[in-house]
Amino acid sequence: MSDEIEMEEGGGVVKKFMFLNRKAPYGTIYALEGLEVVLISAAFEQDVCMAFVDDGVYQLMKDVDTSGIEMKNFSKTYRALEGYDIEKLYVERESMELRGLTEDDFIVDVTVLSSAELAALMAEQDVVISH
Amino acid sequence: MPTIEVNGKTIEVDEEGYLVNLSDWSEEVADFLAKEEKVEMTPNHWEVVNFLREYYNEYQIAPAIRVLTKAIAKKLGPDKGNNKYLYELFPYGPAKQACKIAGLPKPTGCI
Predict the structure, then answer these.
(1) Do the beta carbons of residue B65 and residue B93 sit within 8 Å?
(2) pLDDT for B1-39, tens place per residue?
(3) For a surface tag, which of A17, A83, A90, B46 has the fewest beta carbons within 10 Å of its beta carbon?
């Protein structure tokens, strides 16, 4: 197992991490806390991707206005991910279509994968963190 | 909650001295916070502080130092987007000191 893990120049171990988001952005703290974990994880220079499944696809909606619920609008923060070198964002097609959404509804560029494709990708990861 | 007093106005800060409410920020508040950090504000300091405020406005987070350096290099050129330049302006850490002076929360992804 360990000899399959790619070594970076500094000699550190690079593992494949997937952060799996299943919950709607507002109403619970999961999405915001999860996003902060992802941003912090970027400092460790791992191979990080994010996947959005079920109501998690709503996290990427653009033109969100949170003034009515008095919560910080962190939707724009997903656009900062690129600057943190987190560029692999996957959305499950079935979840997206079931909710009547298309890629045009999202605040960032994503790769849309079928449930089967996403399952295969998940199987390749060293670590999957779900929230 | 600790407070600071600027021009007769009482402003809430957290235990590390970061503003609790971003809307309390003004250039006078920035000058006050800079003095507490023993930073003499020059146009180069203001450029970084204003850059951070714009970044926050666009992304709703204070960037990690690595991300800040890269973003400044992109916008203001490599002469300014490097650790040496930023640490000369803010010796105790650009992310920590410049974010505080800019009225932002402590950077996300800062370890």
Answers:
(1) yes
(2) 889 999 889 999 998 899 999 999 999 999 999 999 999
(3) B46
Could you tell me which of A63, A81, A65, A79 has the C-alpha nearest to residue A26? A65
* Chain A residues in contact with B67 (beta carbon < 8 A): 42, 80, 83-84
pLDDT tens-digit readout, B28-67: 999 999 999 999 999 999 999 999 999 999 999 999 888 9
Cβ-defined contact of A77 to B59 (cutoff 8 Å): yes
Query: In chain A, where are the structural domains located?
Result: 13-130
Minimum CA–CA partner of A43 in chain B: B109
In a domain, B10, yes or no: yes
Q: What is the CATH number of the domain that holds B42?
A: 1.10.10.370
CATH class of A13-130: alpha beta
- The ipTM is 0.82
| pTM (two decimals) | 0.86
Q: To probe the interface with A, which of B21, B23, B56, B60 has the most A CB atoms within 10 Å?
A: B60
Q: Does a structural domain hold residue B110?
A: no
